[in-house]
Amino acid sequence: MDKTTEELLGIVSDWSGKFNGAYNIRENGACAGRSSSENIKIESMEGKPGLEIYIKPGTKGETVYIPACVTKGGIDDLTYNNFHVGEGADVIIVAGCGVHTSDGHDVRHNGIHRFILEKGSKVLYKEKHIGTGAGQGAKRIDPVTEIEQGEDSYLEMDTIQIGGVDSTFRKTSGKLGKGAKLIIKERIMTDGEQTAKTDFAVELNGEDSGVDLVSRSVAKGNSYQEYHSKISGNARCTGHSECDAILADNGRVNAAPELYAGDLDAALIHEAAIGKIAGEQIIKLQTLGLTEEEAEKKIIEGFLRG
Amino acid sequence: MLKIQDLCWSLESGEEILKNVSLEIPEGKLTVITGPNGGGKTSLAKLIAGLQKPDSGRLFLDGEDITDWDITKRSLGGIGYAFQQPVRFKGLTVRDLMELSAQKSLKDREICEILGKVGLCANEYLDRVIDSSLSGGEAKRIEIASVLAKKDAKMLVFDEPEAGIDLWSFSSLIDAFEKLKNTEKKSLLIISHQERILGISDHIAVIADGRVTKSGPRDEILGELLGEEKIERCPLGKDKEEN
Questions:
Q1: d(Cα B155, Cα B82) in Å, to the nearest integer?
Q2: How many Å lie between the alpha carbon of B227 and the closest alpha carbon of chain A?
């Protein structure tokens, strides 16, 4: 692995020279390291670039790392990763992505993830995205996530785009069975001329299924963000989506939430708030000794962390 | 300590809120500013903390002219200010706020000690986000605690600290104010109508219609106010044992 990859791995996947658990490191479109565990098997996908990750039923307390880094300009990396989570498993999946270019050429990573959660399984999915490097080359990350959740399964997705990504289009879709729960916490910060587009489509098909979708974004500089979500309640279910955005400088945000109730007992809620940082928040932190700039930074840090 | 000299302040509409207010807040003492609603008390507190700029007049802290200092500089200079209406944040926790105020990392027990002064059981609150999930009373107590945590505070300004505080927490708060004054030798300026706070003060100033109408030692002013029956005799004035 090159030094830039190691640095990016440290940021996006807590890499400290090794991973404790099953892992696959993707570097510039190729495998830079792989290890399976007794309960988590990682195999190359047939016919396509990517991985089949099999998590045995009943696997508890294990973490699997699937980070990807692109560190050379001119690479347009596409990968398909299928996560098969066996019945009753309870695991953490870490799948960060870093893109770097400093030679003037564009760089892109497009990860298409598919999650198949069997009955009663539980997954915490953590994903950090970052772009680094100077020069004119654009840094793009366009993840696609498809989710199929079986009965009483639970998936929590904690995703954050830290910064430096010039353009992203994040597309996430899910189909939930009986009693399945999906929690998505998405945080995106854009600056300069960056753009970010997010599209969620969740179908609540099983009785007592539920989704909680929380998106927090900060648009600074001249950046632009688009948010679209659609929650379809096709059974007795609960759906909640919350889109909060902070604007700074000339940042712009277009939020378009959508709810569809196809069942009398579907309970769906959407909350949205877009605006600049409240002046009183900045003033409060100034009364504690922070400058206006420090206060704004601290408020944004907290907002994206929360 | 703090000298307020001929301070005037008006709304953008031109309405005069403070009219040539002059007052001296002595060092190491507890001064209460009281008076009818709309008289200009909160405006004066905001001018002291730097949230508003006066139209004319000067402010001196320990002899230094701070009139042109911004909010941050006044805070770093030792002025703390507790808002009448607590500010809420999406994402910032109680721990964050206490550490920002103290300008250092705090151990759990240090934060517990501060929160205990305002009657909060700290372990439940350390990592609570200061958002709408907190009740008004909780948010108010955290607001006050954030000022009690302040590093290098010389003068602490509290705007109606009793508002939204329950009886038991209020008693803790009274103790905290007395300790700040007597043990830590802080100078306190409290905007209040509350009899019990007036009762622990050293000095009282009355502001009405934008002017200081009375100012002097507690016993002298309190006697006059009680005679005029302008004090709120709310249940908070009673001792805990009586309730």
A1: 11
A2: 38
Q: Do B89 and A283 touch (CB under 8 A)?
A: no
Question: To the nearest whole angstrom, how far is the Cα of A242 from the nearest Cα of chain B?
Answer: 13
Q: Looking at residue B223, what is its pLDDT? A: 86
**Residue A86 C-alpha, separation from nearest chain B C-alpha, in angstroms:** 34
Q: B105-127, pLDDT tens digit by residue? A: 999 999 999 998 888 877 889 99
Residue type, position B143, single letter: E
Q: Write down the domain spans for chain B.
A: 2-242
Q: Which residues pair with A35 in a beta bridge?
A: A23
**In this complex, how many residue pairs, one in chain A and one in chain B, have their CB atoms less than 8 Å apart?**
66
Facing residue for A288 by CB, picked from B91, B93, B146: B146
In this structure, what token pair is assigned to residue A288? Answer: 């504690």
A215 neighbourhood in chain B, CB within 8 Å: none
pLDDT bin (cut points 50, 70, 90) of residue B239 is very low
pLDDT score at A86: 98
Q: Of B72, B81, B91, which is closest to A306 when you measure between CB atoms?
A: B91
Taking an 8 Å cut-off on Cβ atoms, the answer to whether B90 and A306 are in contact is yes
Candidate from A23-32, B71-80, B162-171 with smallest mean pLDDT:
B162-171
In chain B, residues with a C-beta closer than 8 Å to the C-beta of A290 are 72, 100
Task: Read off the pLDDT band of B235 (50, 70, 90).
Answer: very low
Residues of A in CB contact (< 8 Å) with B are: 216, 244, 278, 280-281, 283-292, 298-299, 301-306
Domain boundaries, chain A: 3-280
Q: Say if CB A253 and CB A222 are below 8 A apart.
A: no
Asked whether the beta carbons of residue A280 and residue B87 sit closer than 8 angstroms, the reply is yes
Mean pLDDT of the B86-103 span: 95
State the Cα–Cα distance between residues A286 and B79, nearest whole angstrom.
Answer: 11
Across the interface, whether the CB atoms of A287 and B97 are under 8 A apart is answered no
Q: Which residues of chain A fall below pLDDT 50?
A: none
**Distance (Å) from the C-alpha of residue A277 to the closest C-alpha of chain B?**
10
Task: Flag if B89 and A302 touch (Cβ within 8 Å).
Answer: yes
**Average pLDDT for B209-234:** 82
Q: Count CB-CB contacts under 10 A for residue B19.
A: 15
Class of domain B2-242 (CATH, top level): alpha beta
Most confident of the ranges A55-59, A75-79, B149-153, B226-230: A55-59
pLDDT of residue B230: 55
pTM across the whole model:
0.85
